[in-house]
Amino acid sequence: MLKAWSPQLLSVLRIVVASLYLLHGTQKLLAIPASATGATVPLASRLGAASVIEIVGGTLILLGLFTHLAAFICAGEMAAAYFLVHAPRAPLPLQNSGELPVLFCFIFLYLAAAGPGPWSVDAVRKAA
Predict the structure, then answer these.
(1) Residue 128 belongs to some domain of the structure
(2) Has this prediction a pTM greater than 0.90?
(3) pLDDT > 70: percent of the chain
């Protein structure tokens, strides 16, 4: 019964995940929404570069525009975040607070392969 909704649910997954990912970038770079400290990161830093990827990539994925490429790049950014920041703290994601980067990475890898679903700019462009 739900199989008939698979394409639309792919679009819903993409929209929800991209929205959450985008907020991580805006929080770090623009303090929107404000973090507990209210601080932002410098643009010319590793976290600043990550924030730009999260904002640009998150926006593209949210819209479903150039989804395959944007999701692949965002998956790589999340893999780098996990191995550079979280993995050195402890061996397991539950111990090193790395659950979100791992989930984002694998969801983005899925979107890079599966595409954006029917509710996307890519789908509209393909139909035109």
Answers:
(1) no
(2) yes
(3) 100
